Amino acid sequence: MNIRDVKVGDKLLTDSGFTCLRGGQVLPVLKDDGGHFITCDEGKHYLDGQADGDGNLIGLTKVAEEVCQ
After folding, report:
1. 3-state SS assignment for residue 6
2. FRET label pair with 23: which of 14, 46, 53, 68, CA 20 to 30 Å apart?
3. For the residues of 27-60, what is the DSSP string, one character each?
């Protein structure tokens, strides 16, 4: 999933490679002046820090809305 395709309200599933998030969490994407983020144990985890050189997000998977309900 590319960071360009993420919008506010999308739900992202975390993998186990984070120090500030537990693996298997489904979190909504939020946005402020700093950009798109998900909440974490340390406050805000900005998505641009999870993107590789091509903009693909590492450690996060978009979850279909119907799976979350």
Report:
1. coil
2. 53
3. EE-EEETTEEEEEETTEEEEGGGGB-TTSBBSSE
Q: Which amino acid is at 42?
A: E
How many Å apart are CA 18 and CA 6, to the nearest integer?
19
Question: What does residue 9 show for φ and ψ, rounded to 5 degrees?
Answer: 95, -20
Beta partners for residue 32, in sequence order: 35
**Distance of CA 20 to CAs 25, 46, 50, 66, 68, Å?**
11, 12, 13, 27, 22
Q: Is 13 helix (H, G, I), strand (E, B) or coil?
A: strand
Is 5 in a helix, a strand, or coil?
helix
